[in-house]
Known about the structure:
The chain is an alpha/beta fold. The protein has nine helices and eleven strands. It has helices at residues 10-21, 33-38, 40-44, 55-67, 83-92, 105-121, 145-154, 209-225, 231-240, and strands spanning 2-6, 25-30, 48-51, 72-74, 97-99, 128-135, 164-166, 174-180, 187-193, 198-204, 228-230. The chain binds nicotinamide-adenine-dinucleotide. Nicotinamide-adenine-dinucleotide binds at residues 6-12, 30-33, 52-55, 57, 61, 75-78, 100-103, 138, 208, 211.
Amino acid sequence: xxxxxxxxxxxxxxxxxxxxxxxxxxxxxxxxxxxxxxxxxxxxxxxxxxxxxxxxxxxxxxxxxxxxxxxxxxxxxxxxxxxxxxxxxxxxxxxxxxxxxxxxxxxxxxxxxxxxxxxxxxxxxxxxxxxxxxxxxxxxxxxxxxxxxxxxxxxxxxxxxxxxxxxxxxxxxxxxxxxxxxxxxxxxxxxxxxxxxxxxxxxxxxxxxxxxxxxxxxxxxxxxxxxxxxxxxxxxxxxxxxxxxxxxxxx
Length: 251
Ligand SMILES: NC(=O)c1ccc[n+]([C@@H]2O[C@H](COP(=O)([O-])OP(=O)(O)OC[C@H]3O[C@@H](n4cnc5c(N)ncnc54)[C@H](O)[C@@H]3O)[C@@H](O)[C@H]2O)c1
């Protein structure tokens, strides 16, 4: 798979390692607007692009892929308020896209577990739900995309709640607390607190490798399948076909 890396920061470097270990060719590496000019032809010669850049440039990067018939896997967070527009443009151009707020196996299981737990807890209104997330100090968006997806996944099971609120409390809103510390790769907790006790479902990323693995697996899948998909759907499909179960960090 001839792959263009769009965004060569912390995640771009991890993705490069996984691509090379899985014998894929890295064609273009684009990390700023100048690179888009110098690497343009190599970008056009790619089978696929993997995009982990920044919230304010992600959509432009994706449109470049759609305009030039390059399928793209996007892990950038902080732009999903424009998801409908992006999906529509991608469809108009007959493009291929996998997007996701979190590509790790653990977090995709966390989403499923969170949904199940919220459904159980809907029978016990004495428990107050809350989401907490901790990330490194250079993270641009807040709350994290993963925390927002968790809120969306559990929202149908929360009584008398619609929507979430960041770092505040408001009647009828789910509170998401965001903390920024050191180089933390990502910690997410779903809590249900009562006077008697507290339940916590937690995912802790030990490094960025799990996110990068998932993105490369998604790219391998997208090259063969095409279409427009949330990674959670791809994950379910991969799990059903048992392709992802034996994937471990020894790549
Ligand atoms: N979906 C997931 O599983 C997942 C996991 C980790 C991080 N993320 C998200 O991925 C994104 C990147 O994370 P990171 O930790 O690598 O950030 P980072 O700040 O280390 O890297 C972002 C890179 O994008 C580059 N960039 C700036 N303008 C660009 C342009 N026009 N074209 C291409 N690249 C450009 C920057 O120079 C920088 O190197 C963030 O939005 C983060 O939240 C998602």
